[in-house]
Design brief:
Blueprint: E1 2-6, H1 10-21, E2 25-30, H2 33-39, E3 46-49, H3 55-58, E4 68-71, H4 76-88, E5 94-98, E6 116-118, H5 120-132, E7 138-143, E8 148-154, E9 175-182, E10 185-187, E11 200-206, H6 210-217
Length: 226
C-alpha cells in the first residue's frame, strides 16, 4: 500500500518508520527543510520538501497514486486543508486526520475530506476510563464519522449478562461482540461462550444502538437502602 503522511514531526516520523517496517511505501511530507535534512537518513522513506496545503508543490509527487493520506501535523488548520486537497485534488481513497485540539473535532468530517479522525486527548481519556471503570460502557474509538463505536465494558457482579452464554443475549441488530478478554487472555466470542464477572467485553455498535447494548451489559443500579 502507498501512504502519504503530511507532517514529519514526532508523530509523522514514528508512523512512517512503522508503516515502512510493515512493508508499505511511504511518502513523508514537510515544509521544514532542516527537519528533513536531520532525519532523512534515519528513515528509509520518500521525503518530500513541500507545503501540504499547496497543491502546486505536491503535483508530480505521486500523491494521486497513494491509497491513504494521513494528515499528522501539529496544526489543525493544516490537517484540514491537506485532507481536503488529498480527497478532492488527488482523489486519495482514504484520508485519516489528527485532531490536535478536541474543540476542533467537529470540523473533521466528510465535508473536509476526512474519512477518519483521531483525537489523542479523547483517546487518552477513553483509555484511562477503561482502565478504572467497572460496569459501565466506555467508548474507545469512533469510526465512520462517529456513527460506529468500539466500546468496552468490564462485567460487574450485577451485570445482567453475567451467568448467561453469549447466544442468550439479544444484541441490537447493528451490534457485535468482537472479543472477550478474560484473565489476560483473548477469548473468541461464540454463542456458547459463558459470560463471567470481570470479563472485558469489546463490541462494535452504531451510535443509535449504544443505549440498548449498554442495558444488556452494564451493571444495574443498586437499590437504595432505607
Amino acid at each position: 500500500m502507498k501512504i502519504a503522511i503530511a507532517g514529519a514531526g514526532n508523530v509523522g516520523r514514528f508512523m512512517a518508520k512503522d508503516l515502512q517496517r510493515l512493508g508499505h511505501t511511504v511518502i513523508l511530507i514537510d515544509q521544514n527543510g532542516d527537519l528533513i535534512q536531520k532525519h532523512r537518513d534515519r528513515i528509509d522513506v520518500t521525503w518530500l520538501h513541500a507545503d501540504a496545503t499547496e497543491p502546486l508543490t505536491l503535483q508530480g509527487a505521486g500523491l494521486s497514486t497513494c491509497d491513504v493520506m494521513v494528515a499528522a501535523t501539529g496544526d489543525d488548520k493544516v490537517n484540514l486543508v491537506s485532507s481536503l486537497l488529498a480527497k478532492q485534488e488527488f482523489g486519495i481513497r482514504r484520508v485519516v486526520a489528527r485532531v490536535n485540539h478536541p474543540n476542533n473535532e467537529w470540523l473533521f468530517n466528510e465535508a473536509w475530506g476526512v474519512d477518519e479522525s483521531v483525537s489523542p486527548p479523547h483517546l487518552l481519556t477513553s483509555l484511562v476510563e477503561e482502565a478504572v471503570v467497572v460496569g459501565d460502557l466506555v467508548t474507545l474509538l469512533r469510526l465512520e464519522q462517529g456513527k460506529v463505536l468500539l466500546v468496552e465494558v468490564t462485567l460487574a457482579e450485577n451485570s445482567p449478562a453475567v451467568g448467561k452464554v453469549l447466544g442468550e443475549l439479544t444484541l441490537p441488530r447493528d451490534a457485535v461482540v468482537t472479543a472477550i478478554i478474560r484473565a489476560g487472555h483473548v477469548v473468541v466470542p461464540r454463542d456458547e461462550t459463558p459470560l463471567m464477572v470481570g470479563d472485558e467485553i469489546l463490541a462494535l455498535t452504531t451510535l443509535e444502538n449504544e443505549p440498548e447494548l449498554e442495558l444488556l451489559l452494564s451493571a444495574r443500579p443498586q437499590p437504595v437502602q432505607t
